[in-house]
Amino acid sequence: MYLAIDIGGTKLAAGVVSDDGKVIVRDRVATPQRDVWVALERLVKRVMAAAPVPLSAVGAGCGGPMDPGAGTVSPLHIPSLANFQLQAALAETTGLATFVDNDAKALTLGEAWCGAGRGEMNMVGVVVGTGVGGGILSNGRLLGGRLGNAGHIGHMVVEPGGRPCACGGVGCLEAYACGPAIEAETGRPPQRAPQAIIERTGLLVGRALASLAAVVDFNVAVIGGSVALGFGEPFFAAAQHEISVRAKLSFTEGLEVRRAALGELAPLVGAAALARRGLLGLG
């Protein structure tokens, strides 16, 4: 069994996940403005105490950017964790082998392991929530990139000359599609967004995926995250339609958008998939 941890801009979650991807124990707390590690360490210890059997490893998914090799994270939506040595801190607290990576890459692994991407060798996983992130599975291998940050679909430019983004760029997908951006624009939380915003968000995600498919060559995109799943069918239909309009190369036609099958459990199953992958020596 694995200790699975998800570090998000609005919540911290931890759980115990079995070798076949079942969540046995889980707990969560709101992400505090300060002292995030203190809250996370308390949560981790509570979940470990509830584990029914000894745990084999820790997997932690966190927003980026990050340096998985160095074990540091700098999530844009949690400024107090900038350059935080997450891997070392978790290893010291748990005494277990610890594997840290981007939360969207974790979701991708989890959905490929036992979710909507099961059996797929070439797919992209996307998280649309507090931020917008992605993971790329190519010929069954998760792409890491030079510093381990491959897959940041949220920082593809979808509106040239558009809004400033938290990353410092302009016109990024995340500047339009993430929860805080939608709330800033509409004055209401994403779950109360008007239909036009829901459909535009799907369109922009589809636009980014169509461009990415031409570069990476994949046939399935699995999308999760609180905003995407909360928006539901209108979001997914808009994304699929935009892909059909823009993805016209022979190898991009037929790109399919799927709703993440693991639902609210996806972050924890994905984090466990990181640990599983690490123990198997796959990176």
Automatic annotation (TrEMBL):
<dbReference type="InterPro" id="IPR043129">
    <property type="entry name" value="ATPase_NBD"/>
</dbReference>
<protein>
    <submittedName>
        <fullName>Unannotated protein</fullName>
    </submittedName>
</protein>
<dbReference type="Pfam" id="PF00480">
    <property type="entry name" value="ROK"/>
</dbReference>
<dbReference type="InterPro" id="IPR000600">
    <property type="entry name" value="ROK"/>
</dbReference>
<dbReference type="InterPro" id="IPR049874">
    <property type="entry name" value="ROK_cs"/>
</dbReference>
